[in-house]
Amino acid sequence: MRPVPNWAHKCLAISSTQHLKQQNVVLINVATLHEAERLIESCEQCNPEGAEIPFDNILDRVTGSDPSVTDYILEQAAKCPNCRREILEKTLIEPA
Fold it and tell me: Are 60 and 43 in contact (CB under 8 A)?
């Protein structure tokens, strides 16, 4: 039997003190994506001063998901209605 490396004990100690919480992963289809795009005014590329909210906040609103336990996978990138650049989950946006 191999000895357990020192770093493994540290990882085990850390993980044993933390509570595991369930994370939900939601696939965002094109129809839901278009619904969320209607709630975007601009993005961090074309409006760096005004874009302060991550796009996943809009996805939380559209899907009704709990933001503390939800991650998203986009079927395709959203598009900024102002500059047409791609918007991903953590892209900062200005809501409409």
Answer: no
Q: What Cα–Cα distance (Å) separates residue 62 from each residue in 9, 33, 49?
A: 42, 9, 24
Q: At what angle do helices 30-37 and 55-63 cross, to 10 degrees?
A: 110
Give the DSSP H/E element, type plus range, for residue 74: strand 70-74
Sorted by sequence, the CB contacts under 8 Å of residue 35 that are 6+ apart come out as 62
Task: Please state the length of the chain.
Answer: 96
pTM recorded for the entire structure: 0.76
Least reliable range by pLDDT among 10-14, 69-73, 76-80:
10-14
Tokens of 86: 């791609």
Residues paired with residue 25 on neighbouring β-strands, in sequence order: 71
Tell me the pLDDT tens digit for each residue of 38-76: 999 999 999 999 999 999 999 999 999 999 999 999 999
